[in-house]
Amino acid sequence: MKKFSAGKTAAVLAVAGGAVLASIAPVMADVSAQSPSQSLVRVEDPGKLKAWGAAVELDVTYSCPVSQSQAYIYVSLTQNRPLIGLATGSGSKTVTCTGGFSTVKISVTAQNRAFGSVAPAFAKADLQAYPNTAADERTISLKW
């Protein structure tokens, strides 16, 4: 029976381990290349009232795959003002898709009545990053 020294055993294990890694590395890369990419968008709570309610500044967090084309976020805001009626508004912004999460400020301008801090508001955001899209709908509070 032939004895192996510790150095020779370590060398054999290193070569065998390298061969195993080399055989599965292309498979791992192929799986990540085939994984679907998603776009996400979220309106953060609360919105910040500006100019006595004439506008609301919203923080919008988004993520979309890296792309050469422009991406856009559209936001609409509706608030039921008791005894006054509905306050509505919208805003949009061009954004860059980096593949990671980013947060931008989007100003929503009141169109018919001023927004207020008493009642909650319904926010809807749409991210258009061809060919990916995402949407978010939620109730947020408005603060001064």
List key phrases describing it.
144 residues; alpha+beta; nine-stranded mixed beta sheet; 9 strands; 20% helix; 48% strand
What does this structure look like?
The longest helix has 29 residues, at 6-34. The relative contact order is 0.23. With 144 residues, this protein is an alpha+beta fold. The N and C termini lie far apart (85 Å). Mean pLDDT is 84; it is low at 27-36. It has one helix at residues 6-34; strands at residues 40-43, 47-50, 55-63, 71-81, 85-95, 101-110, 121-129, 132-140, 142-143. Strands 1, 2, 3, 4, 5, 6, 7, 8 and 9 form a nine-stranded mixed beta sheet that branches.
Produce the secondary structure layout:
Blueprint: H1 6-34, E1 40-43, E2 47-50, E3 55-63, E4 71-81, E5 85-95, E6 101-110, E7 121-129, E8 132-140, E9 142-143
Parallel strand pairs: 2-9
Antiparallel strand pairs: 1-3, 2-3, 3-6, 4-5, 4-7, 5-6, 7-8
